[in-house]
User: Fold BON domain-containing protein from Rhodoferax saidenbachensis.
Amino acid sequence: MSTTKTSSKFLRSALAISALMAFGAVAQAATNEPMTTKVEKAEAKVEKAVSDSWITTKVKSEILANSASKAFKVSVTTKSGVVALKGKLPTQDAVDLVKMIAEKVKGVQSVDTSGLVIAG
Assistant:
């Protein structure tokens, strides 16, 4: 790559970074909220999303790892630590089992089984 092309790319990158920094400063001034507070709020949102994703994955894997429930087809979603289970299960005991499994996962606040239907 020629020196002119390299310099041009560097200049465009530097201008883009400067524009983003200026925009951030303007946005911060407009809201009167310290930049560290905004970063902390953003980090908290990311942590919550990662935590919910981890909980969903862990609940699914625990259901599959249990010899009594591994054949059950249960959909799992998590929002703010609340696990929602959906699917058709053969008995109320099966519903109770998957609920108990989900409740034992670290970070679970509560378990919603209203989406589970007894198909037996």
In short: Strands lie at 74-79, 82-89, 110-118. DSSP finds three helices and three strands in the chain.
